[in-house]
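Title: Comparing notes on inverse folding

I've been comparing how different people in this forum approach sequence design from structure. To keep things fair, I'm posting one structure and asking everyone to reply with a full sequence. Here's the target:
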């Protein structure tokens, strides 16, 4: 890895980025990811200019996101008003944009290394080839700087222009146990740990064993901590939950002819009432009903419930506005919320959560006035856009028949991927419910979605319940372990007890100030390391 032919760095960056994405679900080849990022560090240190440093990171990102986000193309096959072939172009176009953030990380690392922390010394023969000397530039300071800039770039990607936080790098460490660090420094901090681990691999190959040990020791300590810190045991008498996965595909979901059959599937999988009360969870947009406006639908749902049961189901909340036509006022659909309703045995609605972080082009069409005349539309059927809700909140589930009062947080589908934005900090819930519709997402998207939900459970120390139409539905404990699940494209249910929460983690208390502090610590360590090696 010391010397890559100068005429191939761009192709190398593109291929390395492509292979780096194999560390995500479903392949989980995290050692390949570490090797590819080690190669990217070499490409940074050998970059002869700012433009080269940026382009290598950008090309790495293009390959990385094109493979990791291939599932997006599948979503376009469900919208006849959009050309299906455009899905593949959309993956590439999105990747061209998202790759800017890795490019910024490599550019800032190169610039800081050359002009702030690791000023060039006397020219060496390596300079004549356009490469910086490896021994001068490739030790701990560069690795620490790259970890810090990657952290900052991932946070920026997750927040700029509504944000797209899908597949943060830290999710690749879930199989290793090192991801438990997210309880301290969050997902973006764990992404920086991936860079550090890649740096440890690189300096080991270069036989620089002291810096390798300095990086590897805390990573091994985190893995050991994960082994010694299991989730709390579910106590006897914990609330009973029933998670339903009907295996209703996106191509059938909105068919009026199948509405009754779909409801019957949901009803059958929900089971019959029992003496012990149950919390029953249905997926996002499970029923084609306006529950606050249709009492007959509420009665149908209530008939499925026992005396202490509660049903949590996805549905749509709609809003109308009067419009005058020929001198007559008519109510016209103005907008809608993607919502989660709580229904009790008396056919009452005990609470509602409205999705806050909506999917651009999925649930609303940005710049509708410009794009709709071009034949483009949002992927979710309907003529009006969804409106965002107020943000995270905890809904009260009342005590009944021996079940204690509970607080439920809700994050609908895509919302669960945003680190530090899923919990009402002033009213901490006992668990999070993540109803989702992953039927859009092919075979790669659903398992990637579940992996990101596991990181939220780890960060917050809160169990997560997922119900999806086609999978993967699951129960995740407060340490991010999958306790039970229903596989992809299978109908079924999970009947189990609700896992307990842990006390608030450091990250739960500090939010994304924690990874920001870790970033500053990495920069300070880079300064200190440079001073001790001059």
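Reply #1:
Here's my take.
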């Amino acid at each position: 890895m010391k010397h890559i032919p100068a005429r191939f760095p761009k192709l190398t960056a593109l291929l390395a980025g492509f292979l780096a994405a194999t560390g995500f679900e479903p392949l989980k080849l995290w050692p390949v990811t570490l090797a590819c990022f080690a190669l990217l560090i070499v490409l940074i240190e050998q970059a002869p200019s700012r433009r080269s440093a940026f382009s290598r990171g950008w090309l790495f990102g293009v390959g990385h996101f094109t493979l990791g986000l291939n599932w997006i193309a599948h979503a376009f096959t469900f919208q006849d008003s959009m050309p299906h072939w455009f899905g593949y172009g959309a993956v590439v176009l999105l990747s061209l944009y998202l790759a800017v953030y890795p490019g910024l990380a490599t550019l800032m690392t190169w610039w800081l290394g050359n002009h702030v922390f690791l000023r060039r010394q006397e020219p060496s023969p390596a300079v004549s080839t356009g490469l910086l000397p490896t021994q001068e530039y490739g030790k701990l300071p560069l690795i620490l700087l790259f970890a810090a800039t990657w952290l900052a770039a991932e946070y920026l990607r997750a927040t700029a222009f509504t944000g797209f936080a899908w597949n943060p790098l830290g999710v690749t460490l879930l199989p290793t146990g090192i991801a438990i660090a997210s309880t301290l420094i969050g997902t973006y901090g764990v992404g920086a740990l991936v860079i550090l681990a890649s740096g440890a691999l690189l300096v080991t190959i270069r036989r620089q064993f002291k810096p390798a040990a300095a990086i590897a020791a805390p990573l091994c300590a985190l893995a050991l901590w994960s082994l010694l810190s299991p989730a709390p045991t579910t106590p006897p008498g914990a609330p009973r939950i029933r998670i339903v996965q009907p295996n209703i595909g996106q191509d059938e979901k909105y068919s009026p002819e199948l509405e009754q059959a779909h409801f019957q599937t949901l009803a059958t999988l929900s089971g019959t009432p029992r003496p012990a009360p149950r919390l029953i969870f249905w997926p996002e947009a499970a029923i084609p009903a306006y529950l606050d406006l249709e009492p007959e639908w509420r009665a149908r749902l209530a008939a499925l419930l026992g005396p202490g049961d509660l049903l949590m189901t996805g549905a749509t909340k709609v809003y109308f506005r009067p419009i005058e036509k020929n001198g007559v006022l008519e109510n016209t659909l103005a907008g809608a919320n993607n919502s989660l309703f709580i229904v009790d045995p008396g056919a009452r609605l005990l609470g509602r959560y409205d999705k806050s972080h909506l999917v651009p082009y999925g649930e609303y069409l940005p710049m509708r006035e410009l794009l709709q005349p071009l034949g483009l539309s949002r992927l979710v059927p309907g003529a009006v856009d969804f409106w965002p809700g107020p943000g995270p909140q905890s809904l009260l589930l009342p005590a009944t028949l021996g079940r204690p009062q509970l607080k439920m947080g809700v994050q609908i589908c895509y919302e669960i991927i945003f680190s530090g934005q899923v919990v009402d900090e002033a009213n901490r819930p006992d668990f999070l419910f993540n109803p989702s519709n992953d039927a859009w997402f092919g075979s790669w998207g659903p398992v990637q979605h579940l992996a990101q939900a596991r990181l939220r459970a780890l960060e917050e120390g809160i169990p997560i319940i997922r119900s999806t139409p086609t999978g993967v539905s699951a129960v995740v404990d407060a340490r991010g372990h999958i306790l039970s699940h229903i596989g992809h494209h299978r109908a079924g249910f999970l009947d189990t007890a609700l896992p307990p929460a842990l006390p608030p983690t450091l990250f739960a208390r500090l939010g994304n100030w924690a990874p920001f502090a870790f970033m500053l610590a990495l920069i300070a360590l880079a300064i200190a390391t440079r001073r001790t090696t001059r």
